[in-house]
Design goal:
Layout: H1 9-21, H2 38-50, E1 54-58, H3 61-71, E2 79-82, H4 89-96, E3 100-103, H5 114-120, E4 125-128, H6 140-150, E5 153-157, E6 165-166, E7 169-170, E8 177-181, E9 194-198, H7 201-210, H8 238-248, H9 251-269, E10 276-277, E11 290-294, H10 298-310, E12 316-317, H11 331-334, H12 344-349, H13 359-367, E13 368-372, H14 379-394
Parallel strand pairs: 2-3, 2-4, 4-5, 5-8
Antiparallel strand pairs: 1-9, 6-7, 8-9, 10-11, 11-13, 12-13
Bound molecules: pyridoxal-5'-phosphate.
Pyridoxal-5'-phosphate (PLP) is lined by residues 60-62, 86-87, 89-90, 131, 157, 159-160, 181, 183, 194.
Length: 397
């Protein structure tokens, strides 16, 4: 799955350009950098690839989410609809904006469902953050049309889904803004990094400024730059951007390999009765980082992970029992353990997250198992893995 599997000469070459000039900062030093603008080049190539006008790189996917929230004007008193199956960074960025995360059910896409979204709407709803989990899409066209109809901001968390698309249109490009992560376990990596992408010039200008203390980045005299707004330091360094640039240029190869490997395992599993696959609104657009399937119930799902692991099939996740990605095990959120900087008012506005009930999401997550798709499998390993998977699952149901 992740780009680090194919970290190589190309990444080293890009990083060496930066090391040779000694300009690690993404802005200024025009003379000293000998024409190397890694962050800017990455941004231009990412935007082009996504079919969007603008991309702004940040220090992480979390920084990108916070930057996008600020740039879209999401803040104190607003409610933001989020799914319970995500990485907790989505929720943290809403809280850090001073807004209130409101959880809504997912469906068999593993992502926020349009029905769940509708049921969670209130007069205070300001934005919707669907998360395209595990490399593939939510029912994003339906979600977008609800947002358009209700006048809500659509902000896509596409951190796990770079390269994926829905009917030819890149995930992350449907709303007012989209966010990506390039942390070490994502499809492509900067080491640490993320991006805000948009077609909206005002959102881009605000994101570019917010991530660097509000600087307008006009001209090349840093001391003479104006501040458009108050902001933060969510900048990426040229070193990280250089790694990411080399990785971005490998994305097509990564997608091709993942899709081929996933298709081999999926087709071998297709005739195991009792197993269903994750619903993909556009199978062609799946980036294929994971193969997700549903066992008949919680019990067989737990047995399946054990059986697969025992058969040497590693990289299988039962998210329902996993502490990282599903609300059920987010004890720190339940207890609202937060640093002092989270405004008292934000805490007061939030519901009691221990009491959130999401029966449809639970029913789906109890049965879901995701198998990581690797780039480095040899044909023999893939074949052996496929056979071991089918055999282990057949004995269970
Ligand atoms: C990884 C991830 C993030 C955060 O990205 P970082 O770069 O690790 O900060 C946010 N949302 C989702 C869904 C993620 O998977």
């Amino acid at each position: 799955m992740p780009g680090f599997e194919i970290f190589g000469e190309e990444e080293r070459e890009q990083v060496n350009h930066v090391l040779e000039t000694g300009v690690l900062f993404r802005y200024g030093f025009d003379g000293a950098r000998q024409g190397h603008w890694k962050a800017k080049t990455f941004e231009a190539e990412l935007a082009r690839r996504l079919g969007l006008k603008y991309a702004h790189l940040c220090a992480s996917g979390t920084a990108a989410l916070s930057t996008a929230m600020a740039a879209c004007g999401i803040g104190a008193g607003d409610e933001v609809i989020v799914p319970p199956f995500t990485f907790v960074a989505t929720i943290e960025s809403v809280l850090m904006a001073g807004a209130v995360p409101v959880f809504a059910d997912i469906d068999e896409t593993l992502c926020l469902s349009p029905e769940g979204l509708e049921a969670a709407l209130t007069p205070a709803t300001k934005a919707v953050v669907p998360v395209h989990m595990c490399g593939a899409m939510a029912r994003i066209d339906e979600i977008k049309s609800i947002c358009d109809r209700k006048g809500l901001i659509l902000l896509e968390d596409a951190c796990q889904s770079v390269g994926a698309s829905y009917h030819g249109k890149a995930l992350g490009s449907f709303g007012k803004a989209g966010c990506f992560s390039f942390d070490p376990v994502k499809t492509i990596t900067c080491g640490e990094g993320g991006a805000v992408v948009t077609n909206d010039r005002d959102v881009y200008i605000a994101a570019d400024a917010y991530a660097d203390h509000g600087h307008d980045h006009i001209g090349n005299d840093r001391g003479a730059e104006d501040h458009l707004i108050l902001g933060a330091n969510y900048r990426i360094s040229e070193l990280n951007a250089a790694v990411g640039l080399a990785q971005l240029r490998k994305l097509d190869r990564i997608l091709e390999t993942q899709r081929r490997n996933k298709a081999a395992i999926k087709s071998a599993m297709a005739d195991i009765r009792g197993i269903a696959f994750r619903y993909l609104p556009d199978p062609e657009g799946d980036s294929a980082t994971f193969l997700t399937f549903f066992m008949p119930n919680l019990e067989t799902a737990r047995q399946a992970v054990k059986a697969l692991t025992a058969a040497g099939v590693d990289g299988c996740f039962h998210w329902f029992d996993n502490k990282w990605h599903y609300i059920r095990k987010w004890n720190h959120l339940h207890a609202m353990q937060t640093p002092a900087r989270l405004a008292v008012q934000t805490l007061a506005n939030c519901p009691d997250y221990r009491a959130i009930s999401l029966p449809e999401s639970d029913a789906i997550m109890q049965r879901a198992i995701s198998m990581q798709i690797k780039l480095g499998w040899t044909p023999e390993q893939l074949d052996q893995r496929t056979r071991a998977t089918v055999k282990a699952l057949r004995t269970l149901i």
